Amino acid sequence: MSLSSSRIAFRQQSVIPGFGLTMGLTLTWLGLIVLLPLSALFIKTSELSFERFIAIVTAARTLHALQVSFGLALAAALVNVVFGAIVVWVLVRYEFPFKKGVDALIDIPFALPTAVAGIALTALYAENGWVGSLLAPLGIQVSFTPLGILVALIFIGLPFVVRTVQPVLADLDQELEEAAASLGATRTQTLIKVVLPSIWPALLTGFALAFARAVGEYGSVIFIAGNLPGVSEIAPLLIVIRLEEFRYADATAIATVMLLASFALLLVINRLQRWAELRGSRHG
Amino acid sequence: MNALDHTAHGHGASEGLPSALEQSHAYAHHGGRPARTEPPAVRIALTVIALAFIGLFIGLPLITVFYEALKRGWAAYVAALIEPDALAAIRLTLIVAAISVVANLIFGLVAAWAIAKFEFPGKSLLITLIDLPFSVSPVVAGLIYVLLFGAQGLFAAYLQAWDIKIIFALPGIVLATIFVTFPFVARELIPLMQEQGTSEEEAAISLGASGLSTFFRVTLPNVKWALLYGVLLCNARAMGEFGAVSVVSGHVRGLTNTMPLHIEILYNEYQFVASFAVASLLALLALVTLIAKTILEHRLAEEDR
Q1: Nearest-CA residue of chain A relative to B155?
Q2: Do B137 and A258 touch (CB under 8 A)?
Q3: Do A15 and B202 touch (CB under 8 A)?
Q4: ipTM of the complex
Q5: Which residues of chain B have pLDDT under 70?
């Protein structure tokens, strides 16, 4: 598909009608709903002087908020890669009761509105909640601390890792593992030298997807975070606060940083996915 | 344990294998060392870890929603749902979702036709642009519409002259929702329609069918399950969107509050039972969506065969 399209410099002749109409509508709608509004952000940012932009972005409270958003998103994505890999392994390779139901549960964070997830996690991990009351005697407070943010970001990120890695592991030819074993490899060696390299691109892609989603997450976090400036205040919340204070320049500048970060992540994810596909086709 | 062995070995045995591998397979199956799977203790430990993780982060939060909603009994639960502000929020959510889903349904079909049925340069860039809203933070998605249509926005003068209100009103909520759900339908359709190719459509056209009847009689039946799947996911997100809508809504009780915003307000007022009651409706929607999704995936897989 990609080969044939890159060889042709113009649209291929086709008997199928409607290219002009559908392409025109697609570009118009895309332009109106997505591109025009996004460019409004850059237009508004360009109205700021460079010094002003830098001053806003490097203000202590902004830096803290960005640090909290990016740092905890990274931590949550790492947790999800480790536990997501275990979940995938168990779901693909083992049998246990209610496996289909457990498998379906993985998609809950995709389908459950973030506000619902937010209040549920807060209640669950609060000091008087089912899990929070078990952690309280150990001196661990989750709700209303940065740890709570981590919990919310783990929740929303998990399906990205699992659903990216699961099909790859399911397609993996187990004969390779067998061949490794018959050549004298221990199970651990086989897992590290045969299985891990095959699912590595998918794991990285899942990690990047979970990270990208977590960086911009708002709904599930603000309930559980406590939202203390400099401690548990995430960057998207700071944008909302600045908007409510009518400090549009501040909101715009912070949003521009967030948007540029998402674009960069999108590029990385596209690269990773292409790499993963290439790997998949070579092995498969 | 038998069930575990079965999946670990079943896959390879069902396929024709070269004899060397067949031998190693037999060795693995009957021989002394467990070649293809982990020791039972490790398997049990991993299963327990995975289930505990899913339970802690997904299962328990889901149960919490319904437990907290019904904590004070059914009377309190129902009272929270039939209260006028809750009803207004439910109504607004349904309106917003209906408009957004229809808009994205039409866009998805149109875009998929242009992208999947024709070859042109820049196709992958176009697909990336359609996917773009997925990688934008919801808050930023709301903000960009405020920057366009808000009191200080780029179009503020025109909107004031014509007395049109977009931000803190229904149009803004709908626009922000369309933005965050933009890729859902298109991204389900495009890969499927690309895979199906153009031969069936070409045959219909060469037999004299018009473009529209080819679309309705050939293309649409071929993609109906994927389309429904995309609509379902789009609807779930449209009804549950919080961040983007929160920025453009203005939080006017009974007027511009969608269900997720209503949940937030009740929660911040410490009306936990009422808050979780409304939340339970959205949780039910999520569960129904997932069940329908599972059924649809089954259908899609069957049609693939």
Answers
A1: A40
A2: yes
A3: yes
A4: 0.89
A5: 1-36, 304-305
